[in-house]
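Chapter summary example.
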Amino acid sequence: MHRPLAALLSISLLLTAQDPPKPIAGFTPAAARRQLELESKFDAALNRQNLQQWMKRITSKPHHVGSPGSREVAEFIAAQFKSWGYDTQIETVYPLFPTPKSRLLEMVAPTRYTAKIEEPPIEGDSTSSIKQDNLPVYNAYSTDGDVTGELVYVNRGLPDDYDRLRQMGIDVKGKIVLARYGGSWRGIKPKVAAENGAIGCLIFSDPQDDGYGAGDVYPKGGYRPQFSAQRGSVMDMPVYPGDPLTPFKGATDPNRAPDPKQAPTVTKIPVMPISYGDAEPLLRALGGPVAPQAWRGGLPLTYHTGPGPAKVHLKLEFDWKLAPAHNVVARMRGSEKPDEWILRGNHHDGWNFGASDPVSGMVALMEEAHGIAELAKTGWRPKRTIVFLAWDGEEPALLGSTEWAENHAAELKRHAVAYLNTDGTSRGFVSISGASTMELFAAQTARDVIDPQTRVSAMERAEARRKADGRPPEYRIGPLGSGSDYTVFQHHLGIPSLNFSFGGEDHYGVYHSNYDSYDHFVRFVDPDFQYTLATAQLGGRMILRLAEASSLPFRLDPLARSVRAWTTEVVKLTDDLRESTKKQNELIRGGALKLAADPRLTFIPPEPKPEVPHLNFAPLLNAVSKLEAVTAKASKGTVSDDALIRAEQYLTQDDGLPRRPWFRHVLHAPGFYTGYGVKTLPGIREAIEQRNWPEADAQMLRLADTLNRYSAFIEAAIR
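The structure predicted for these 719 residues follows.
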């Protein structure tokens, strides 16, 4: 039962009148008290029934980018914003988006098997039988192909797995590889397979990960059933996300030629996702050595590597076209600082129904907007402009957000204060990642949201979990890699960004499948929408505090602390690599001698690697010390809002990272071989990991120069 709004307000006001106000960065004590009262009114305006009703409507039909459902969803969201008083438009961009024309996977030896590559309807799931506009199982941005070859099982399909295969005497050149999901982003798997000479790639969902190895499968439980498969993009997004044909500029022309041959981020070999139901016959037919212990999954069989005798035929053909991506942009103009923009986004497109991913986050954003609109009805207006953004085309390649931000890059660099992102939410613990300068801001907002299950603050619960896991209980936010719409803002434009959600206690094993549905969500993810509501409470506080703060709540000392920690890591990485190389070379030479003495041994040792030189870290260490001194000085003075808005951009370089100039931020980026996973100090770290010592030296100097430039800018801005 809901308490009447007036009763909630009087209880809240009584409590805030009696208790000393909690400190809020950017607010004086008196202003903090008023802000907490405003947030209590915001909470009282929120309605869980809206979340449920909106989710059921949005997920009633497929709504992937380019579909009629996507346009309908965008128009529905825009109509809601308009009804609440926001200045609302739909801005459409036209990226390249392929859909399947034909898909065939068959085993042709030693027996025949034709893969189903279809997800059957499930009893009790009302949308799983919908066929119209439903995207079949496939990987977006796989190249066309018709290939036949022996099969090789490659575990997760990462570089270390291929090193292990070489040690076992197995070469994948001219073969089709079978990899299981996990360990890295899916697009890395065909990328590494192609680099090793494979002609095709299959990716299956092992039941150990999200099927019956994790719990009961849908519909009895929430985990992946036998013939469910994970759709998803395999575009080489660590090079750049967004439209493959228009890096650095918005895809606003609908009349361009959609030629995939002009798209360097499209895969080099055909790739297809399959279920564990389709993978099992292929794995059973494999011979060759038994797979290493760590490579064995949850299927009831002995995992072998091959190659052969299993031989498969993979044929894929796609309709390469430009698809309209409809972004909803809704503004509430600021009363005092209208040229400072607070951006809040979530995507609305899904791989068909997408209840958890992304609609749970989308409806939370909508309720934030609704709650803020209710405040505006009382005469209140935000000091800064608030911009709500509902993105299209996130699932294939962050299409809508990237193209919109590239198209508006100049004005975003002038006006954007911060970007706040969600991409689905569920039951459990609060999670926040992002720019180090927003760490205190993130912790304070999570402190002031009550966890629905435990009734303590979300921050307190998160700290208790950290302590239980043996980690320091003090809350720290980690840096962002990629995988959602913050990417263009944080890594390309240098706009401080946060990504937040709840999770960790749901039974969500149907990621990117037809079964990510409303029926699944209300049974196994967040049945009463309590955590979806908590997400709206958290997001609303973030928006209101950034919009209302007298001075922006950014703190520079956590940035210096993070950079010091990351620098220590790369120094240790180099030292550890030097020591491990020395030991490995000794073992390799010893193993080679044993092989020569005993021809029965068939292990193939790798070649000894060059010794690791001593790198000159002095310029970087000096720059970090300078950064620490300047940020300590800044913490005792004041840095203007105008400087804080521009500061993060001083941590970017116009020509970006080596071999991927689109990624401009020097402190963090998605890893070249991790995809979603973040690499801190990426220019140096990845050069060391790849043993490219001249590049490591060059990147060391570039990073030091950038940090010194940032420090000089901050020092000049301190009042």
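To summarize the output: The longest strand covers residues 99-109.
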